[in-house]
Write a structure and sequence with these properties.
alpha/beta; ten-stranded mixed beta sheet; two-stranded antiparallel sheet
């Protein structure tokens, strides 16, 4: 995606829908958006803590792209592009017209929103100096682990000073509460929803708590919120290693691949070893050394498209030490709300260096070339020292009142492992159908005519595809690389 990329019961945090309606009295006043006057923008005042509906409020940023055929309008389609930290408002302005088919644009008002703590919805902010002083997420002894945990606690305190209590209420159940308040403010009895990547978790939580308010829901490239630490890390690592292996197979069968005919795994491992020794120089800047994390993060990002041709070109240029028009990492970026959101949804239970060593050993064992990737590693290390009691801890998905939900996932997804989609589907067999794209990359709906048709037919007519439907793979084009998401000089994929 160009501007997108995309774990027990909650208890007292979850209030009844009637309580929210009576105490928040939500309303929307629309006006043309500054960035695009053909899209309407608004805000919705909501409680930061839904357990205290009369307490502090924040403004939920919302925008609307009206149905192009209002006479045949079906309703609203709420969307979330993932992250954590993706802006639904920006997605509607920049991408909705090209992402969704003309039929979807004709029949639905496309509703974007920035989840709490994100972009225009009281964003989580942290001191740049603190972010720039982050220690390594790869400790080699107890002292380094303690430093990492202490930094995480200090960063949490800093972010809370900068942002207020919303730092502790950025979990996906709170977002689901916000979504239902938005539904009421829109005057809709039921909503339609499309969420991709981390947006699937928001959709799952909404369906779990407000299933009777769903007309149709498509969740594309799925999170599995039931996984404890080791299964989460192992499946994440296995997914990115699978994407590396698929890249290797593509080079083997594609004569135009710059690495065709070469032992790509051996070449990759040689570059990784050189980076570990501090001997790999950025071809564009002889004074800059590339680390193995630069390589892993850059490759992981290019698997999203997948941008295999670009990756092969970069590996070839690095091996030959030739300048390239695009390096693995170029722009520095301040941390997004990744940590506040993720740590509200997942309790990773890494309390000691021994816990870390075991978890790290697992991800390296199942992912020897990609060393587990960066995304999964960042996820389980980010929350060390952040909180022992996430607001929305892991649990099996329980869909009681929801209609049939359409799940999509690529078989070779580098970010949301196909094993995650399969796991969610097993938990909700009577409430979900799973459609598999037999190809590669992250985010499935726009891949082929088959994936488009499955989603469009479901959203428009309510036609539920046969469970187990497969859409054939299409070889990726050289232009299919996705925009990067850099962080501290390393391109870090996100959900």
């Amino acid at each position: 995606m160009r501007t997108v990329v995309g774990v027990l019961a909650v208890g007292a945090l979850v209030l009844g829908a009637g309580v929210a309606s009576a105490q928040t009295e939500p309303s929307l006043t629309w006006k043309p958006c500054q960035e695009d006057t053909t899209v309407e923008c608004s805000t919705l005042g909501l409680p930061i803590d839904w357990a205290k509906p009369n307490g502090d409020k924040f403004n939920l940023a919302v925008d609307r792209l009206k149905a192009t055929d209002p006479a045949h309008r079906i309703g609203v389609l709420l969307i979330n592009p993932g992250g954590p930290g993706g802006s639904g408002v920006n997605f509607v302005i920049s991408d909705a017209r090209t992402w969704f088919s003309p039929e979807i644009l004709a029949r639905f008002d496309i509703i974007g929103f920035d989840p709490r703590g994100v972009a225009n919805s009281q964003p989580v902010k942290c001191s740049l100096g603190m972010l720039e002083r982050a220690p390594s997420l790869y400790p080699t002894n107890q002292a380094e682990f303690d430093t990492m945990a202490r930094y995480a606690r200090d960063l949490h305190d800093d972010c809370r000073r900068q942002s207020g209590p919303i730092v502790d209420h950025a979990d996906s159940v709170s977002v689901a509460r916000d979504m239902d308040a938005l539904r009421q403010a829109l005057g809709e009895q039921k909503i339609n929803y499309y969420g991709v990547s981390y947006g699937t978790l928001m959709g799952q939580m909404y369906a779990e708590h407000f299933g009777d308010h769903v007309r149709a829901m498509t969740i594309d490239s799925n999170m599995d919120h039931s996984l404890s630490t080791i299964p989460f890390v192992a499946t994440s690592a296995r997914g990115v290693e699978d994407s590396f292996n698929e890249f290797v197979k593509w080079c083997d069968r594609t004569a135009s691949c710059p690495l065709h005919g070469k032992d790509v795994p051996a070449l990759w491992d040689k570059l990784m070893d050189k980076a570990d020794r501090g001997e790999l120089t950025d071809p564009d800047d002889p004074n800059t050394k590339l680390t193995s994390l630069d390589l892993i993060g850059g490759a992981g990002n290019m698997f999203y498209g997948p941008g295999w041709a670009r990756l092969a070109t970069l590996i070839s240029q690095l091996d030959a030490n030739k300048p390239s028009p695009q390096a693995f990492a170029d722009d520095l970026a301040v941390e997004d709300p990744f940590r506040a959101v993720l740590c509200g949804d997942y309790g990773m239970q890494i309390a000691t260096y021994d816990d870390y060593k075991l978890t790290s050993a697992v991800e390296n064992a199942v992912s020897p070339h990609m060393r587990g990737g960066i995304l999964g590693h960042r996820a389980y290390t980010a929350c060390i020292g952040w909180t022992d009691h996430p607001a929305n801890p892991q649990h099996r998905l329980n869909l009681r009142n929801a209609p049939k939900i359409l799940m999509l996932n690529a078989k070779h997804d580098p970010a949301t492992s196909y094993a995650w989609a399969s796991g969610v589907h097993r938990q909700t067999m009577d409430k979900t159908v799973l459609v598999t794209y037999d190809g590669w990359g992250h985010a499935t709906y726009p891949r082929t005519e088959c994936t488009h048709a499955v989603v469009d037919n479901y959203l428009v007519s309510g036609t539920v595809p046969k469970d187990g439907t497969h859409c054939a793979a299409v070889e990726p084009s050289p232009e299919s690389a996705r925009a990067a998401t850099p962080s501290r000089g390393i391109i870090v994929p996100r959900w």
